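User: Show me a protein chain along with its predicted structure.
Assistant: Here is one chain, sequence first, then structure tokens.
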Amino acid sequence: MTDLRTRMIFAALMSFLMTVIMSGWITWLNIGFHPEYAARWGHAFLAAWPAAFFAVMTIAPMVQRLTVRLAAALR
């Protein structure tokens, strides 16, 4: 089992990277490369990152346990 500091670093990095990618992608799908693209992307990122961090912190341990069970069942 990992300690809390490791989980928090993982959650921060994973949520940051996923939020950058997804907010950029969804912003592009919604408005294309509009003159306000960067500002809207930044706003979407800042709104989404705390939610993504919380989700990774709370859901990742359950997903890890499920992954171990599924991998064992597929052996």
